[in-house]
Amino acid sequence: xxxxxxxxxxxxxxxxxxxxxxxxxxxxxxxxxxxxxxxxxxxxxxxxxxxxxxxxxxxxxxxxxxxxxxxxxxxxxxxxxxxxxxxxxxxxxxxxxxxxxxxxxxxxxxxxxxxxxxxxxxxxxxxxxxxxxxxxxxxxxxxxxxxxxxxxxxxxxxxxxxxxxxxxxxxxxxxxxxxxxxxxxxxxxxxxxxxxxxxxxxxxxxxxxxxxxxxxxxxxxxxxxxxxxxxxxxxxxxxxxxxxxxxxxxxxxxxxxxxxxxxxxxxxxxxxxxxxxxxxxxxxxxxxxxxxxxxxxxxxxxxxxxxxxxxxxxxxxxxxxxxxxxxxxxxxxxxxxxxxxxxxxxxxxxxxxxxxxxxxxxxxxxxxxxxxxxxxxxxxxxxxxxxxxxxx
Length: 392
Ligand code: APR
Ligand code: PHB
Fold this sequence. Notes:
Bound molecules: adenosine-5-diphosphoribose, P-hydroxybenzoic acid
Distance between the termini: 41 Å
Shape: globular
Largest sheet: 8 strands, mixed
CATH topology of the largest domain: FAD/NAD(P)-binding domain
CATH class of the largest domain: Alpha Beta
Oligomer: single chain
């Protein structure tokens, strides 16, 4: 079998890339380790920058997002017992974000791919990448007891942080930059009305908390927790009680609780692999970088990587130009590092760090007090949160 681009991973990056290549007449196949049901079972943040909304519209999968998604003009910072709104729309000259779960983005992309009759191999076992630094790149995988081989022009490694693509690159050819945070996020999904119409990020001396949502009837909440925490130690009631303690009194009072339909603990890390291109292999999305979820940049960075990569492929096949391919990594990394910085800064501002002592919380409170009182500082927060322009 042969294709032009072999895509490893059917998460948002792989699926969006597949649609953009298909739209440009570039043949592609996706190899996914898990089942489609497993992929859709993942609960992930869903705050979409306008560029991500535009890309989904561009590939024709924006209808349900516009129908069910929630356009948000701002969000709140809660500290010192009160809430302070960051008016994204006013501070950025009219920009907004779209709240629409990543699971739904993935589902919409899966439906579109199937409708286009494009090939996705789910439960592809033991995917291997071959000769991506040579002249005859190909991938192989196990399926029902036999090995299959797919010859290709390019390989797109969209297989996430734990994928095989980055792991296939010789250690001497790649530099990994990583920062692991000394805490995690305990998250709960519940079929309860969100406590507020917009997201609330709370800095509290007991730790960070976030009030988010998936729809007007489904809420998503997080509290910072030690990495040693065990899920079994967190009953729903314990979670709701601790969340209330970390919110301003009015919000705590308004909180509507209910049974959790999903509960999990996730670690936080900042990670970037450089470069993102190795011969005919291109890394995109979580395969190349991870951000702490505070700034909700993960899905948006995957989308911008894929935009650059699809443009590069279109230039290669359409104009036989290598320019986009040769500049892919540098263009992605320039945007990635700015999002990494924002995500690290927002995480550092909102969480309790064990080694910071009492002064740490005082310094954070002073920065928050300055931020909400300064149009310049609020504008910096807002323009990063809605997403920086491409190639800015
Ligand atoms: N072979 C085939 N598929 C693989 C392999 C492998 N060896 N390893 C991982 N995969 C698949 C995973 O099962 C997953 O479906 O690759 C896919 C990678 O998807 P994501 O991890 O969602 O990464 P990405 O598509 O880059 O999307 C980034 O996902 O993790 C969130 O916060 C992140 O929102 C961001 C988004
Ligand atoms: C979420 O809804 O899961 C979410 C929203 C915003 C974030 C992080 C997570 O910054």
